[in-house]
Protein backbone atom coordinates (compact mmCIF):
# COMPACT_ATOMS: atom_id res chain seq x y z
CA UNK A 1 0.00 0.00 0.00
CA UNK A 2 1.31 3.41 -0.89
CA UNK A 3 2.06 5.42 2.24
CA UNK A 4 3.64 8.60 0.84
CA UNK A 5 1.33 11.36 -0.31
CA UNK A 6 1.84 13.86 -3.08
CA UNK A 7 0.72 16.95 -1.16
CA UNK A 8 0.83 19.06 -4.32
CA UNK A 9 -2.23 17.29 -5.76
CA UNK A 10 -5.80 16.57 -4.73
CA UNK A 11 -8.30 18.35 -2.48
CA UNK A 12 -6.62 20.30 0.32
CA UNK A 13 -9.00 19.45 3.17
CA UNK A 14 -9.19 15.64 2.94
CA UNK A 15 -5.49 15.37 2.05
CA UNK A 16 -4.41 17.51 5.01
CA UNK A 17 -6.74 15.69 7.42
CA UNK A 18 -5.51 12.23 6.36
CA UNK A 19 -1.93 13.46 6.67
CA UNK A 20 -2.23 15.04 10.13
CA UNK A 21 -4.22 12.32 11.92
CA UNK A 22 -1.22 9.96 12.32
CA UNK A 23 0.84 12.88 13.67
CA UNK A 24 -1.88 13.63 16.23
CA UNK A 25 -2.24 9.97 17.17
CA UNK A 26 1.54 9.72 17.59
CA UNK A 27 1.55 12.64 20.04
CA UNK A 28 -1.23 11.04 22.07
CA UNK A 29 0.66 7.73 22.08
CA UNK A 30 3.83 9.32 23.43
CA UNK A 31 1.94 11.14 26.18
CA UNK A 32 0.12 7.97 27.21
CA UNK A 33 3.41 6.07 27.20
CA UNK A 34 4.93 8.60 29.60
CA UNK A 35 1.87 8.42 31.85
CA UNK A 36 1.89 4.61 32.00
CA UNK A 37 5.61 4.49 32.77
CA UNK A 38 5.14 7.10 35.51
CA UNK A 39 2.48 4.87 37.08
CA UNK A 40 4.84 1.87 37.20
CA UNK A 41 7.66 3.88 38.70
CA UNK A 42 5.63 6.06 41.07
CA UNK A 43 3.25 3.45 42.43
CA UNK A 44 5.63 0.53 42.77
CA UNK A 45 9.09 2.04 43.25
CA UNK A 46 8.11 5.06 45.34
CA UNK A 47 8.50 8.82 45.39
CA UNK A 48 12.32 8.76 45.28
CA UNK A 49 12.22 6.78 42.03
CA UNK A 50 9.62 9.11 40.56
CA UNK A 51 11.74 12.11 41.54
CA UNK A 52 14.74 10.44 39.88
CA UNK A 53 12.91 9.88 36.60
CA UNK A 54 11.51 13.43 36.67
CA UNK A 55 15.03 14.87 36.90
CA UNK A 56 16.40 12.57 34.20
CA UNK A 57 13.43 13.20 31.91
CA UNK A 58 14.02 16.95 32.14
CA UNK A 59 17.44 16.31 30.62
CA UNK A 60 15.88 14.06 27.99
CA UNK A 61 13.39 16.79 27.08
CA UNK A 62 16.25 19.26 26.67
CA UNK A 63 18.22 16.82 24.47
CA UNK A 64 15.23 16.17 22.22
CA UNK A 65 14.44 19.88 22.07
CA UNK A 66 18.04 20.66 21.11
CA UNK A 67 17.63 18.84 17.77
CA UNK A 68 13.89 19.39 17.31
CA UNK A 69 14.44 22.35 15.00
CA UNK A 70 17.05 20.55 12.92
CA UNK A 71 14.59 17.73 12.38
CA UNK A 72 11.97 20.24 11.24
CA UNK A 73 14.50 21.82 8.88
CA UNK A 74 15.10 18.36 7.42
CA UNK A 75 11.33 17.92 6.95
CA UNK A 76 11.09 21.20 5.05
CA UNK A 77 14.14 20.53 2.84
CA UNK A 78 12.92 17.06 1.92
CA UNK A 79 9.40 18.40 1.31
CA UNK A 80 10.66 21.13 -1.01
CA UNK A 81 12.79 18.60 -2.91
CA UNK A 82 9.88 16.18 -3.27
CA UNK A 83 7.61 19.00 -4.44
CA UNK A 84 10.19 19.97 -7.06
CA UNK A 85 10.46 16.27 -8.14
CA UNK A 86 14.17 16.41 -7.30
CA UNK A 87 14.86 12.99 -5.73
CA UNK A 88 18.63 13.48 -6.00
CA UNK A 89 18.42 16.56 -3.80
CA UNK A 90 16.06 14.78 -1.37
CA UNK A 91 18.58 11.97 -0.91
CA UNK A 92 21.38 14.47 -0.39
CA UNK A 93 19.35 16.01 2.42
CA UNK A 94 18.68 12.60 3.95
CA UNK A 95 22.32 11.51 3.69
CA UNK A 96 23.63 14.71 5.27
CA UNK A 97 20.95 14.61 7.99
CA UNK A 98 21.71 10.99 8.80
CA UNK A 99 25.46 11.61 9.12
CA UNK A 100 24.87 14.68 11.28
CA UNK A 101 22.38 12.96 13.61
CA UNK A 102 24.55 9.88 14.06
CA UNK A 103 27.66 11.95 14.80
CA UNK A 104 25.98 14.31 17.25
CA UNK A 105 24.02 11.57 19.01
CA UNK A 106 27.08 9.35 19.56
CA UNK A 107 28.98 12.34 20.95
CA UNK A 108 26.14 13.22 23.33
CA UNK A 109 25.78 9.60 24.43
CA UNK A 110 29.47 9.18 25.27
CA UNK A 111 29.82 12.54 27.05
CA UNK A 112 26.51 12.08 28.85
CA UNK A 113 27.34 8.65 30.24
CA UNK A 114 30.63 10.02 31.61
CA UNK A 115 29.07 13.14 33.14
CA UNK A 116 25.67 11.80 34.32
CA UNK A 117 26.52 12.22 37.99
CA UNK A 118 27.84 15.76 37.61
CA UNK A 119 24.86 16.84 35.52
CA UNK A 120 22.41 15.63 38.16
CA UNK A 121 24.37 17.26 40.99
CA UNK A 122 24.40 20.52 39.01
CA UNK A 123 20.59 20.25 38.73
CA UNK A 124 20.38 19.97 42.57
CA UNK A 125 18.81 16.52 42.37
CA UNK A 126 17.79 15.46 45.92
CA UNK A 127 20.55 13.38 47.52
CA UNK A 128 18.25 10.46 48.31
CA UNK A 129 17.20 10.22 44.64
CA UNK A 130 20.65 10.81 43.14
CA UNK A 131 21.83 7.15 42.85
CA UNK A 132 18.54 6.13 41.24
CA UNK A 133 18.59 9.09 38.86
CA UNK A 134 22.17 8.35 37.82
CA UNK A 135 21.41 4.68 37.08
CA UNK A 136 18.40 5.74 35.02
CA UNK A 137 20.14 8.59 33.19
CA UNK A 138 23.16 6.54 32.06
CA UNK A 139 20.86 4.18 30.18
CA UNK A 140 18.87 7.12 28.80
CA UNK A 141 22.09 8.45 27.26
CA UNK A 142 22.71 5.03 25.72
CA UNK A 143 19.32 5.33 24.02
CA UNK A 144 20.03 8.80 22.57
CA UNK A 145 21.49 7.58 19.21
CA UNK A 146 18.42 5.43 18.55
CA UNK A 147 16.02 8.21 19.58
CA UNK A 148 17.78 10.82 17.43
CA UNK A 149 18.02 8.70 14.30
CA UNK A 150 14.41 7.56 14.68
CA UNK A 151 13.35 11.22 14.97
CA UNK A 152 15.38 12.07 11.86
CA UNK A 153 13.71 9.30 9.84
CA UNK A 154 10.29 10.44 11.05
CA UNK A 155 11.10 13.97 9.90
CA UNK A 156 12.28 12.94 6.43
CA UNK A 157 9.32 10.62 5.84
CA UNK A 158 6.95 13.37 6.92
CA UNK A 159 8.58 15.71 4.42
CA UNK A 160 7.99 13.08 1.74
CA UNK A 161 4.28 13.00 2.61
CA UNK A 162 4.34 9.82 4.71
CA UNK A 163 3.01 10.02 8.27
CA UNK A 164 1.59 6.51 8.49
CA UNK A 165 4.91 4.67 8.45
CA UNK A 166 6.39 6.69 11.36
CA UNK A 167 3.16 6.17 13.30
CA UNK A 168 3.20 2.39 12.81
CA UNK A 169 6.75 2.09 14.12
CA UNK A 170 6.11 4.59 16.90
CA UNK A 171 3.17 2.40 17.92
CA UNK A 172 5.54 -0.58 17.93
CA UNK A 173 8.02 1.29 20.12
CA UNK A 174 5.39 2.45 22.60
CA UNK A 175 3.92 -1.05 22.81
CA UNK A 176 7.33 -2.57 23.50
CA UNK A 177 8.16 0.10 26.08
CA UNK A 178 4.93 -0.45 27.99
CA UNK A 179 5.32 -4.25 27.84
CA UNK A 180 8.99 -4.34 28.87
CA UNK A 181 8.70 -1.85 31.75
CA UNK A 182 7.25 -4.22 34.38
CA UNK A 183 9.36 -7.13 33.08
CA UNK A 184 12.65 -5.33 33.66
CA UNK A 185 11.55 -3.39 36.75
CA UNK A 186 10.41 -6.46 38.70
CA UNK A 187 12.44 -9.20 36.99
CA UNK A 188 9.49 -11.21 35.70
CA UNK A 189 10.34 -14.54 34.04
CA UNK A 190 13.79 -14.65 32.42
CA UNK A 191 14.28 -10.88 32.74
CA UNK A 192 16.63 -9.47 35.39
CA UNK A 193 15.22 -7.36 38.23
CA UNK A 194 16.65 -3.89 37.57
CA UNK A 195 14.35 -1.51 39.44
CA UNK A 196 14.33 1.99 38.04
CA UNK A 197 17.13 1.13 35.58
CA UNK A 198 14.71 -1.41 34.13
CA UNK A 199 12.38 1.37 33.02
CA UNK A 200 15.21 3.05 31.11
CA UNK A 201 16.30 -0.32 29.69
CA UNK A 202 12.79 -0.89 28.36
CA UNK A 203 12.98 2.48 26.60
CA UNK A 204 16.40 1.62 25.13
CA UNK A 205 15.22 -1.73 23.76
CA UNK A 206 11.93 -0.33 22.46
CA UNK A 207 13.63 2.49 20.56
CA UNK A 208 16.40 0.32 19.11
CA UNK A 209 14.02 -2.42 17.97
CA UNK A 210 11.51 -0.02 16.40
CA UNK A 211 14.32 1.87 14.62
CA UNK A 212 15.81 -1.36 13.24
CA UNK A 213 12.37 -2.53 12.13
CA UNK A 214 11.69 0.75 10.34
CA UNK A 215 15.03 0.63 8.50
CA UNK A 216 14.46 -2.99 7.44
CA UNK A 217 10.94 -2.16 6.29
CA UNK A 218 12.13 0.80 4.20
CA UNK A 219 14.80 -1.40 2.61
CA UNK A 220 12.37 -4.26 1.96
CA UNK A 221 9.82 -1.94 0.33
CA UNK A 222 12.55 -0.18 -1.68
CA UNK A 223 11.09 3.12 -0.51
CA UNK A 224 11.75 5.94 -3.03
CA UNK A 225 13.93 7.64 -0.40
CA UNK A 226 15.90 4.50 0.43
CA UNK A 227 19.61 5.06 -0.19
CA UNK A 228 21.07 2.02 -1.93
CA UNK A 229 24.70 0.89 -1.73
CA UNK A 230 25.76 2.58 -4.97
CA UNK A 231 24.37 5.88 -3.61
CA UNK A 232 26.40 5.83 -0.38
CA UNK A 233 28.26 8.95 -1.47
CA UNK A 234 25.27 11.04 -0.29
CA UNK A 235 26.27 10.28 3.31
CA UNK A 236 29.23 12.60 2.82
CA UNK A 237 27.99 15.88 4.29
CA UNK A 238 26.88 18.52 1.82
CA UNK A 239 28.04 21.68 3.59
CA UNK A 240 25.34 23.86 2.03
CA UNK A 241 22.64 21.51 3.29
CA UNK A 242 24.31 21.13 6.68
CA UNK A 243 24.51 24.88 7.05
CA UNK A 244 20.80 25.18 6.21
CA UNK A 245 19.92 22.47 8.74
CA UNK A 246 21.73 24.33 11.50
CA UNK A 247 21.06 27.96 10.56
CA UNK A 248 17.37 27.34 9.89
CA UNK A 249 16.91 24.59 12.48
CA UNK A 250 18.32 26.36 15.54
CA UNK A 251 15.68 29.15 15.58
CA UNK A 252 12.94 26.50 15.33
CA UNK A 253 14.50 24.57 18.22
CA UNK A 254 14.80 27.75 20.27
CA UNK A 255 11.02 28.01 20.26
CA UNK A 256 10.83 25.03 22.62
CA UNK A 257 13.34 26.66 24.95
CA UNK A 258 11.41 29.97 24.88
CA UNK A 259 8.21 28.11 25.78
CA UNK A 260 9.89 26.04 28.52
CA UNK A 261 11.48 29.05 30.21
CA UNK A 262 8.20 30.98 30.08
CA UNK A 263 6.36 28.07 31.71
CA UNK A 264 8.95 27.98 34.49
CA UNK A 265 8.35 31.68 35.10
CA UNK A 266 4.60 31.16 35.16
CA UNK A 267 4.67 28.31 37.66
CA UNK A 268 7.02 30.28 39.89
CA UNK A 269 4.32 32.98 40.07
CA UNK A 270 1.62 30.38 40.73
CA UNK A 271 3.67 28.86 43.56
CA UNK A 272 3.30 32.12 45.48
CA UNK A 273 -0.43 31.45 45.96
CA UNK A 274 -0.01 28.21 47.87
CA UNK A 275 -0.46 24.48 47.39
CA UNK A 276 -4.13 24.55 46.41
CA UNK A 277 -3.57 27.02 43.56
CA UNK A 278 -0.42 25.23 42.37
CA UNK A 279 -2.09 21.82 42.34
CA UNK A 280 -5.09 23.34 40.54
CA UNK A 281 -2.77 24.75 37.90
CA UNK A 282 -1.01 21.37 37.64
CA UNK A 283 -4.33 19.60 37.09
CA UNK A 284 -5.32 22.07 34.38
CA UNK A 285 -1.96 21.66 32.68
CA UNK A 286 -2.55 17.90 32.45
CA UNK A 287 -5.68 18.64 30.40
CA UNK A 288 -4.00 21.37 28.38
CA UNK A 289 -1.25 18.98 27.29
CA UNK A 290 -3.87 17.06 25.31
CA UNK A 291 -5.88 20.10 24.19
CA UNK A 292 -2.88 21.64 22.42
CA UNK A 293 -2.03 18.44 20.53
CA UNK A 294 -4.33 19.06 17.53
CA UNK A 295 -2.83 22.51 16.92
CA UNK A 296 0.71 21.11 17.07
CA UNK A 297 -0.19 18.27 14.69
CA UNK A 298 -1.95 20.62 12.28
CA UNK A 299 1.01 23.01 12.33
CA UNK A 300 3.41 20.18 11.52
CA UNK A 301 1.14 18.87 8.75
CA UNK A 302 0.69 22.32 7.22
CA UNK A 303 4.46 22.82 7.24
CA UNK A 304 5.00 19.60 5.26
CA UNK A 305 2.19 20.39 2.82
CA UNK A 306 3.42 23.94 2.34
CA UNK A 307 7.03 22.76 1.84
CA UNK A 308 6.08 20.40 -0.98
CA UNK A 309 3.99 23.09 -2.65
CA UNK A 310 6.74 25.68 -2.26
CA UNK A 311 9.03 23.24 -4.05
CA UNK A 312 6.39 22.76 -6.76
CA UNK A 313 5.78 26.56 -6.89
CA UNK A 314 2.08 25.96 -6.15
CA UNK A 315 1.56 29.09 -4.07
CA UNK A 316 -2.20 28.85 -4.39
CA UNK A 317 -2.08 25.56 -2.48
CA UNK A 318 0.23 27.06 0.15
CA UNK A 319 -2.39 29.71 0.89
CA UNK A 320 -5.17 27.11 0.83
CA UNK A 321 -3.24 24.94 3.30
CA UNK A 322 -3.00 27.88 5.71
CA UNK A 323 -6.73 28.60 5.52
CA UNK A 324 -7.68 24.94 5.90
CA UNK A 325 -5.26 24.45 8.78
CA UNK A 326 -6.80 27.38 10.68
CA UNK A 327 -10.29 25.95 10.13
CA UNK A 328 -9.20 22.48 11.33
CA UNK A 329 -7.57 24.07 14.37
CA UNK A 330 -10.83 25.72 15.45
CA UNK A 331 -12.81 22.53 14.82
CA UNK A 332 -10.50 19.98 16.45
CA UNK A 333 -9.29 22.13 19.33
CA UNK A 334 -12.82 23.36 19.94
CA UNK A 335 -14.08 19.78 20.11
CA UNK A 336 -11.63 19.16 22.96
CA UNK A 337 -12.23 22.42 24.80
CA UNK A 338 -16.01 22.17 25.01
CA UNK A 339 -16.08 18.94 27.10
CA UNK A 340 -13.46 20.31 29.48
CA UNK A 341 -15.81 23.24 30.15
CA UNK A 342 -19.08 21.29 30.20
CA UNK A 343 -17.68 18.48 32.33
CA UNK A 344 -14.92 20.38 34.08
CA UNK A 345 -15.63 18.92 37.51
CA UNK A 346 -15.23 15.36 36.26
CA UNK A 347 -12.23 15.96 33.99
CA UNK A 348 -10.19 18.01 36.46
CA UNK A 349 -10.97 15.72 39.41
CA UNK A 350 -9.13 12.94 37.56
CA UNK A 351 -5.89 14.69 38.52
CA UNK A 352 -6.79 15.76 42.07
CA UNK A 353 -7.44 13.84 45.30
CA UNK A 354 -11.00 13.10 46.38
CA UNK A 355 -12.60 16.21 47.89
CA UNK A 356 -9.62 18.43 47.09
CA UNK A 357 -10.08 22.13 47.81
CA UNK A 358 -8.05 22.79 44.66
CA UNK A 359 -10.86 21.60 42.39
CA UNK A 360 -12.79 24.88 42.43
CA UNK A 361 -9.57 26.82 41.79
CA UNK A 362 -8.88 24.52 38.84
CA UNK A 363 -12.36 25.01 37.40
CA UNK A 364 -12.07 28.78 37.72
CA UNK A 365 -8.68 29.13 36.03
CA UNK A 366 -9.60 26.60 33.35
CA UNK A 367 -12.69 28.58 32.35
CA UNK A 368 -10.50 31.65 31.80
CA UNK A 369 -7.38 30.17 30.21
CA UNK A 370 -8.42 27.13 28.20
CA UNK A 371 -9.81 29.25 25.33
CA UNK A 372 -6.31 30.57 24.65
CA UNK A 373 -5.43 27.36 22.82
CA UNK A 374 -7.87 28.22 20.03
CA UNK A 375 -5.93 31.40 19.29
CA UNK A 376 -2.48 30.00 19.93
CA UNK A 377 -3.35 27.19 17.52
CA UNK A 378 -3.69 29.74 14.73
CA UNK A 379 -0.13 30.87 15.51
CA UNK A 380 1.07 27.25 15.28
CA UNK A 381 -0.55 26.85 11.86
CA UNK A 382 0.74 30.13 10.44
CA UNK A 383 4.23 29.46 11.83
CA UNK A 384 4.25 26.03 10.18
CA UNK A 385 3.32 27.51 6.81
CA UNK A 386 5.77 30.43 6.77
CA UNK A 387 8.64 28.25 8.03
CA UNK A 388 8.15 26.05 4.96
CA UNK A 389 9.90 28.66 2.83
CA UNK A 390 12.80 29.17 5.26
CA UNK A 391 11.42 32.17 7.17
CA UNK A 392 12.23 30.74 10.60
CA UNK A 393 13.25 33.80 12.63
CA UNK A 394 9.97 35.83 12.53
CA UNK A 395 7.88 33.01 14.14
CA UNK A 396 10.49 32.79 16.92
CA UNK A 397 10.39 36.55 17.49
CA UNK A 398 6.57 36.58 17.51
CA UNK A 399 6.51 33.75 20.07
CA UNK A 400 9.12 35.47 22.25
CA UNK A 401 7.19 38.75 22.11
CA UNK A 402 3.89 37.04 22.99
CA UNK A 403 5.34 35.14 25.96
CA UNK A 404 8.06 37.42 27.30
CA UNK A 405 6.78 40.78 26.10
CA UNK A 406 3.08 40.25 26.85
CA UNK A 407 2.18 37.14 28.89
CA UNK A 408 4.77 37.37 31.66
CA UNK A 409 4.63 41.18 32.12
CA UNK A 410 0.80 41.09 32.08
CA UNK A 411 0.75 38.40 34.78
CA UNK A 412 3.47 40.10 36.82
CA UNK A 413 2.27 43.71 36.79
CA UNK A 414 -1.48 43.11 37.14
CA UNK A 415 -1.31 40.75 40.11
CA UNK A 416 -1.56 43.60 42.66
CA UNK A 417 -5.00 44.48 41.27
CA UNK A 418 -6.27 41.15 39.89
CA UNK A 419 -4.48 38.63 42.10
CA UNK A 420 -4.02 35.16 40.60
CA UNK A 421 -6.55 36.01 37.88
CA UNK A 422 -3.84 38.14 36.26
CA UNK A 423 -1.92 34.92 35.60
CA UNK A 424 -4.92 33.14 34.11
CA UNK A 425 -5.96 36.10 31.92
CA UNK A 426 -2.40 36.44 30.61
CA UNK A 427 -2.94 33.23 28.61
CA UNK A 428 -5.81 34.40 26.33
CA UNK A 429 -4.44 37.96 26.10
CA UNK A 430 -0.99 36.84 24.92
CA UNK A 431 -2.49 34.19 22.64
CA UNK A 432 -4.71 36.68 20.85
CA UNK A 433 -1.74 39.03 20.42
CA UNK A 434 0.40 36.17 19.03
CA UNK A 435 -2.37 35.29 16.57
CA UNK A 436 -2.71 38.88 15.36
CA UNK A 437 1.06 39.28 14.94
CA UNK A 438 1.27 35.99 13.03
CA UNK A 439 -1.60 36.88 10.72
CA UNK A 440 -0.07 40.30 10.08
CA UNK A 441 3.28 38.73 9.16
CA UNK A 442 1.53 36.15 6.97
CA UNK A 443 -0.27 38.90 5.05
CA UNK A 444 2.41 41.58 4.82
CA UNK A 445 5.71 39.89 5.69
CA UNK A 446 8.36 38.77 3.21
CA UNK A 447 8.20 35.06 4.05
CA UNK A 448 7.34 34.10 0.45
CA UNK A 449 10.79 35.29 -0.69
CA UNK A 450 12.72 33.42 2.02
CA UNK A 451 14.86 30.38 1.09
CA UNK A 452 16.06 27.29 2.95
CA UNK A 453 19.06 26.96 0.60
CA UNK A 454 20.88 29.60 -1.41
CA UNK A 455 19.20 29.79 -4.83
CA UNK A 456 20.84 28.41 -7.92
CA UNK A 457 21.65 30.51 -10.95
CA UNK A 458 18.14 30.22 -12.32
CA UNK A 459 15.67 32.89 -11.31
CA UNK A 460 13.73 32.18 -8.13
CA UNK A 461 9.96 32.18 -8.61
CA UNK A 462 7.95 34.74 -6.68
CA UNK A 463 4.26 34.02 -6.00
CA UNK A 464 1.72 35.96 -8.02
CA UNK A 465 0.33 37.89 -5.06
CA UNK A 466 3.75 39.43 -4.32
CA UNK A 467 4.79 42.24 -6.69
CA UNK A 468 8.00 41.38 -8.53
CA UNK A 469 11.06 43.13 -7.12
CA UNK A 470 14.50 43.70 -8.64
CA UNK A 471 17.21 41.29 -7.46
CA UNK A 472 18.60 42.11 -4.03
CA UNK A 473 21.76 40.82 -2.36
CA UNK A 474 19.74 39.80 0.70
CA UNK A 475 16.69 38.39 -1.09
CA UNK A 476 17.57 34.84 -0.13
CA UNK A 477 18.14 35.52 3.54
CA UNK A 478 14.85 34.33 5.00
CA UNK A 479 15.85 35.00 8.60
CA UNK A 480 16.17 38.73 7.90
CA UNK A 481 12.71 39.41 6.53
From TrEMBL:
Protein name: MATE family efflux transporter
Species: Luteimonas gilva
A molecular function GO annotation: xenobiotic transmembrane transporter activity
InterPro entries: MATE_fam (IPR002528), MdtK-like (IPR048279), Membrane_Transporter-Flippase (IPR052031)
Membrane topology label: Multi-pass membrane protein
Keywords (A to Z) from UniProt: Cell membrane, Membrane, Transmembrane, Transmembrane helix, Transport
Main location: membrane
Any one cellular-component term (Gene Ontology): plasma membrane
